[in-house]
């Protein structure tokens, strides 16, 4: 999968993603991350990319021309139907479902704003999706796009090794993941649940499923209504007295 990032800070993108699992995926060619420096496309003799906002007010606004030309420089490579995602606090909030949807694309372009943002006309011209990473304001879209590239990459075939599987992970089936334990079997007087040491796979699966349900109900009760629940799951929810949450 190819990620193109239109940005004023290309080093931030490559440097951050070149570690750990995303770094390995880039080296192995499972993902390709290509930052495009918007500044390289400025037609201003001082390479300025921003200007004062019409109507006054604080801060600077990124001019439409360098953004448009930066996008045009990759349009041939990505094709006209590629999603161009503007990172903005005004967008739809990113979630795992969106990560799954993005991971099906072959190419995806992220547009990172800075300062007060980007001239609206170029957003209207090239952007297909507006995405936020939460209800807060960052200085720029770089960290937001990195976060999304990370979440999407790990869903791309071959990026995670067997040992790093995303099966059962939080938000799959709208449930949070069960608690995890590793060695030693006892730490500060706290023991790993016996069932996990039993080697009885059916019992372990049952325990994990129930723990997922309990966790979701305790930590994110808003999710449980949309969870993919079996008859057994519903029986269990009735048993723990939380059936009302499904109504
Ligand atoms: N003036 C803009 C507003 O109030 O909507 C905020 C501009 S912000 C300081 C600069 C850039 O950071 C934005 O253009 C956007 O690319 C990025 N950004 C800030 N917060 C973000 C968020 N929550 N999610 C995604 N991108 C964000």
UniProtKB/TrEMBL annotation:
Domain called tRNA methyltransferase TRMD/TRM10-type: residue spans: 1-226
Primary localization class, coarse: cytoplasm
Keyword RNA-binding on entry: no
UniProt keyword list: Cytoplasm, Methyltransferase, S-adenosyl-L-methionine, Transferase, tRNA processing
EC number: 2.1.1.228
Classification via InterPro entries: Alpha/beta_knot_MTases, tRNA_m1G_MeTrfase_C_sf, tRNA_m1G_MeTrfase_TrmD, tRNA_m1G_MTases_N, tRNA_MeTrfase_TRMD/TRM10
GO molecular function: tRNA (guanine(37)-N1)-methyltransferase activity
GO BP: any one term: tRNA N1-guanine methylation
UniProt family annotation: Belongs to the RNA methyltransferase TrmD family.
HAMAP family to which the protein is assigned, alphabetical: TrmD
Purpose of the protein: Specifically methylates guanosine-37 in various tRNAs.
Record-given protein name: tRNA (guanine-N(1)-)-methyltransferase
Organism: Candidatus Fimicola merdigallinarum
